[in-house]
Amino acid sequence: MPKTGSCLCGAVKYTVKSEITHAGACHCGMCRKWSGGIYIGIAVPGDGMEIEGSENVTTFASSEWAERGFCGKCGSNIYYRVTAPGPYQGTYHIGMGTLDDTDGVTVTEEIFTDLKPEGYAFDGNLKGMTEAEVMAMFAQAGEGQ
Ligand SMILES: [Zn+2]
Ligand SMILES: [Zn+2]
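That is the input. Now the predicted structure with zinc ion docked in place:
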């Protein structure tokens, strides 16, 4: 069944057409500032997202390779999206917290683990990657993070 989600005020709603089962947490400084905590994203291919009220989405180009979309009315962080050319271009990483129903979606990995503040941690045995490991992976794919 397709998952739906929205921002806090409901001006932006979306439907994920592809199946989603796992999510990844990012501890990088940009995600930390942007989300106000830990950004937990779920990868969705560009053509797997249907956004209703997209005129209410404000985007911020946080780097040369990605933009971040949020509701211009209530400020909810809705997605991180890769803009750089390459195999991941157009891929959304929707914020897990914006799903209407998170059942069946598990956080299975965390990245930029070496940048994680000491004051909190995920419970459980997640796959972890340091900043250097993440950068090496994206360099292999031919683009930045
Ligand atoms: Zn909103
Ligand atoms: Zn990040």
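The chain has a mean pLDDT of 94.
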